[in-house]
Amino acid sequence: MKKILITGALGQIGSELTMRLRKEYGENNVISSSRSAKDGSDEIVKSGPFEIIDVTNINHIANAVKKHNVDTIIHLAAILSAVGEAKTNLAWDVNMGGLYNVLEVGRETGAAIFTPSSIAAFGPSTPAKNTPQDTIQRPKTMYGVTKVAGEILCDYYYERFGVDTRGVRFPGLISYKTLPGGGTTDYAVDIYYKAIEDGKFTCPLGEDTYMDMMYMPDALDAIINLAQADPSKLKHRNAFNVTAMSFSPEDIFASIKKFMPDFTMSYDVNPTLQKIANSWPDSLDDSAAREEWGWNPKYDLDAMSKDMLEKLKVKLGK
After folding, report:
1. Which among 239, 243, 54, 280 has a CA at the least distance from the CA of 150?
2. CATH match of 4-171+214-241 with 3.40.120.10
3. What residues act catalytically?
């Protein structure tokens, strides 16, 4: 990677990845982009090149790639699970149309493409525990449908056109820097904010709902390490299972209480979110990622809770 374009750079992953890559590759070598600038994005917009890109418009992508001589596109622009169920047309247009456009630009220019998939690509017929790398995928959400189709499309562009496509299946991602963005796993971000601000939290998922999760520093490592990996060692190219921890709301509640003993939690289950969560795996088998490109997360639940609470107290001035 020498010149990197990040779509969706103001989102949960992109906002942190942009700044990390600018430190690693140089400010002028990482081009951030979004449909528009928004409040709180000054650091990303002003610390290096920024382009207005609507990924459903292929000319926006192609012009930016040519203007900046981009050799790698990290495609993060997407509509997430909960929002995708409310706006299915938008989810399809952005998630599938946007990816198709990025892949076409990669085919025409030779740029490598990294785009993440998700545990949402699985469904209720997928083995829920220690979900294999290669297994049945019949999701029940529009977001999940677009992710499965995206995995296959990326494989097609690699096999048919030689586009260097790579990606991981992310679990729920937890970050102190950005607010939740419409995903089913967002409760695991919101709970830390509420712990600091209110000392209590009302959980929208049932107490025994297990899902895979990952702290953002590990997610950034996954993107960078796979993008830099020796292609000759990759038996898979796209949709590597990656995970760091699997926990339920009760587990994260207990972890936070180790650092905030007075914290309390109640439940008010959201049927829509619960149905989505129930269709996803409890835990993933990430052995392929470990074997093929050395995946090795650094944070477990308690280490994440400690760091999240410390960072949020500073951020929120508590």
Report:
1. 239
2. no
3. 143
